[in-house]
Amino acid sequence: MAIALSASLIAGCVTTNSGSTGNDSATAAPATPKGPRSGMNEKGEVIDSAKIESGSGKTVKGRSDWEGEITGVVVPNSKFAKLEIGMSMREAVDNVGQPTDQGAYVTGKAWIPFYFGSDRHRYEMTFKGQGRLIFAGGSLGNFTGGNLIWIIHNPNESGYR
Question: Structure pTM?
Answer without folding.
Answer: 0.70
